[in-house]
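Hello K.,

You asked for the raw outputs rather than the summary table, so here they are, unedited. I folded two proteins back to back in the same session to keep the settings identical. This is the first:
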Amino acid sequence: MFSYRHAFHAGNHADVLKHAILLHTLEYFNRKDAPYWVVDTHAGAGLYALDGDWANKNAEFADGIGRLWERQDLPPILADYVQRVRQDNPDGRLRHYAGSPWLTLDALRDRDRLRLFEMHPTESGVLAKNLEQTSRQHLRQTTIYATDGFEGMKALLPPPTRRGLVLIDPSYEDKQDYRRTLTAVKEGIKRFATGTYAVWYPLVQRREAADMARQMERLPVKSWLHATLSVRRPSTDGFGLHGSGMFLVNPPWTLEAALKEAMPYLARELAQDDRASYTLQYVENPAAGKA
């Protein structure tokens, strides 16, 4: 087991990018009446106290959601995200943060389903206890697996609804996670080609991260979107997270326009030095273009 805890980074710049995109994607899914499934391969505990020991160790949320909390000029995709976080902080003080399981559960309709994987025994236990505090409806919609999400997701694809989103966001502290993520996406596409796959990954000075991103851009899929946000220059010692990326297979067609407005804003407002930057690329029918 690794020392990684989702709470350690809860609400940081990487969560801002990941969760804003997640919420936009779920809202897009909800535009159609047909039910869908969401599979989260590395769920974490679901809910985090930003005034708790783990979150306060580096207080990373202060340079993430904290910088957006009082802003009145947010682009729509970020305004929706901040408004959702405010639902867990009704007194206006930023003390609680919902991870991807809770953000997803809140967005689901009655017939939609959520499947969560979390291998870390402490995290999966807290996740289960958190879920027990919710409604019967949420309990009926959700299944938690204390097993490997890379392997477990395969048995769930395609979902019975033939509509679905797969979120893959391991810690990548084990460099094999890069290879396993790419393999999971490839195998997922074989089983469920029309599904949406959302992959989060860190921007770090590690060859595996860049290699994985390049290989995902070569996948024979209908469309993909690749967004990266760097908030500072890479550290001289080669350690540390200076940004993150989101790669989506079959993304909502509305996402590119939303991010064209949001990414420059994030690069400016979440910057930690003068090297903050972003990239955004959307490609349709790349496989057809290679034929």
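The second followed immediately with the same parameters:
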Amino acid sequence: MNEQFARSLAEAWIDAWNRHDLEAILHHYAIDVEFTSPFVPALSGDPSGTLHGRERLTAYFRKGLQTYPDLHFDLLHVLTGINSLMLYYRSVNGLLAAEMMTVNAEGLIHTVRVHYVKE
């Protein structure tokens, strides 16, 4: 993955979230996405913290947008790896987020691991 692709994906992803545009957010994810976040148990009721598939992710993101109507992300850094990127951004409730994403051959987000720390 090159830096230009990673930066473009990150900026489009942040923009979609800041517009609260669920369709635009989901456009970035593979059908068989695996998503793990500390927010999953509270927002989805799944104690494992992991969601499988875009359908479950859609319900989770919808609930997140409803729960945090003032949600706004500030992108701080984009780190690139081999078929992966990490977004470091200011998230909800004064949290800093580090979100590691792997990208499949179609350029869609396939796996996600989200980490938070209180600022």
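The chain has four helices and six strands.

Happy to rerun anything if the numbers look odd on your end.

Regards,
P.
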